[in-house]
Amino acid sequence: MEEQVIKEKRKQSESTLMNIYNLPAMSTAITEVSRLLDDPSTNTTELSKIIGKDQGMSTKILSIANSPLYGLPRKVSTIDFAILIIGYQDIKNIVVALTMVDSFKNKSDEFFDQKKFWKHSIITGAAAKRLADDLGYRIGSEAFVAGLLHDLGIPVMHKYFHSTFEMIHNDFENSDEKLEDIEVRHLGMSHCDMGKFLANKWNLPPHLCESIEFHHYPKLAVESDVLTALVHLADYMTYKLELGNFYLDNRYQFDESVINTLKLEDKNFEEFVESYRNLFEEELNTDLF
Question: Is the pTM of this model over 0.85?
Fold first, then answer.
């Protein structure tokens, strides 16, 4: 009977999500950026002019490019240079991800702190990219985007299922239950399921959808095991180092399959995580926050 109730709740939640058509419109500049990035004849000057029209977006791109964890080899002071050093496709991924995050911004309240959530998301994304680079996986851009979007389902719950989100918050505060189990009990789906549902709806690549769905359980990822493991490790590191962590990760459970997936068996894992502490601290001191 309980399983049937959860199925019904999931059906209701998915119906609500399907009807989220009134997303905040992308700015004209961002719409134009997406169009230009799909045009192979676009040049850097043309693209940087358009991005420059959206001051908020250009500031975020430069801040990300210069963040310690993102790890670019030199200071990036202009959008032109950011495009050259990061690359067209990676810039497009960043623009799309930042736009998606902005779409679900809601006013902070006692149950959800927008600034702390943004801090956690950006640090997880930058750390996932840095880990990918350091460990020799050539998927830094995808890792950044997957890390940035991994908890997308949380602000969606806060914005579109607000009264239920309050109950989830209170249950989490007053029990030892895992967050995902509480979410499923109330909504029939977890924030991971919700993030994946929306990522599919927006036609994001399958590997990003899977990394969002399984970022708490990377051993379940099939097509994107390395990407999902990188996001899980970055997410766990914010909790373990207590730098950029988010309160809903307070009982974060590390999936040890990540050690094999990322070929970390020959490393002292605790020392490996601790070796990133200074970078995380530097990241928190940037003007991104």
Answer: yes
